[in-house]
UniProtKB/TrEMBL annotation:
Record field: transmembrane: 31-55, 76-99
Family classification: Belongs to the CD225/Dispanin family.
Keyword Transmembrane: yes
Keywords from the UniProt entry: Membrane, Transmembrane, Transmembrane helix
Entry annotated with the keyword Membrane: yes
InterPro entries from the UniProt entry: CD225/Dispanin, CD225/Dispanin_fam
GO CC annotation, single: membrane
Organism listed in the record: Amphiprion percula
Locations listed in the record: Membrane
Protein name in the entry: Proline-rich transmembrane protein 2
Amino acid sequence: DPHFSPFSDFREQTPSAITEAAVDGSKPRDYLILAILSCFCPLWPINIVALTFSVMSRNSLQQGNIDGARRLGRNAMVLSVVSILGGIAIIAAAIALNWGCK
């Protein structure tokens, strides 16, 4: 076929994938605000990865990859929550060690 392009299949599927997500109302969340808030916690390697997954999720959604956006958004949410809970634990331990040993 002289009109074959490796990207023609992607271009045909992208609008339908975006329309399907809009009709379902199940647009995947990227949890960007949660990932940004987790960056204020002292568990810095994990929260940077959460922020990266969040941005990747947003980019996947813009490209029409709904499943990839959902998976990356879920990873961003889990890592953000782990970072926030871990940060709270580190801060609580630091306070207990600092003021509890007098």
